[in-house]
Amino acid sequence: MESRLKFHLKNAVLLLAIVSLSVAITINFRPLYAFFVNRYHLYQEVGLTKKQLLSEYGTLLNYLNFPWIKHLQLSIPMSQSGMKHFADCKILFAFDYAVCLLTVPFATFYVRKLVKKRQTWRLINPIRWCFVVMFALGLFLVTDFEDFFVKFHEMLFRNSDWMFDPETDPIILALPAEFFMACFILFIILFVIFQVILLGRGKWEIRH
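The structure corresponding to this sequence follows.
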């Protein structure tokens, strides 16, 4: 039997893989933004058509996703601090993708090995602790999203560039708080789905 430390380290890598993969899926799930554009007519807030705003959002995502796109060029006016914030976001995107690329292959191999040896049940207790943390996070998110959103940005950014002024950065009008809340909820749902799959497999092994 492997040492407890080694087991916990492997589980930590598995957790990083699930988190980074859930984040990557969430930030690229364009149908979610399209829903908000249609639901709240966000294009009217920035004086664009629906097609134009969705195109602008695609341009923004391309800038954030691809390292070779060095400059963000939108038709919506943007201040220097706004540009700096998206440049900071681009770094975070790259970091998440790097973590994903480094951890997902190992996590896949690790889970396959557990399944082959019928030892997935060993993940049950760690997964239960993850559920507790996610429940607390979700509760904080839905009960006081504004405070959650502020603390989230203060943790990730060391400046106040994320505090957009609609007068100088009207793009914030097309990115309402409700959309970001939905993104966090989607992340939690994806995270839980991955965990439930592993939990289900582990419980199946115990029963059989």
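Residues 141 and 148 are 6 Å apart (CA to CA).
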